[in-house]
Design goal:
Blueprint lengths: L13 H12 L6 E5 L2 E2 L18 E4 L13
Length: 75
């Protein structure tokens, strides 16, 4: 599914973006994960700090699982 979305001016964090997406795709935001470039973003990440603007494409991953499962690079 492809969804085009204009990011609202008040949308600053990944959590707020998930809220905006949840309204459109009819899923709860706890089932949504946002990927950008090669990273799975955290809810408290700021879009601007990650380089995300209104013209960018993000990947929305949906889950039926209750826990987030992802691979993280060791720092």
């Amino acid at each position: 599914m492809t969804v085009e979305l204009d990011i609202r001016p008040e949308t600053k964090t990944v959590q707020q973006l998930k809220q905006q997406l949840a309204e459109i795709i009819n899923l709860t935001q706890d089932r949504l994960y946002i990927g950008f470039e090669t990273s799975l973003l955290e809810d408290n990440d700021y879009l601007q700090n990650k380089g995300i603007s209104d013209c960018d494409t993000v990947h929305v991953i949906t889950s039926q699982l209750t826990e987030k499962i992802c691979y993280r690079n060791k720092k």
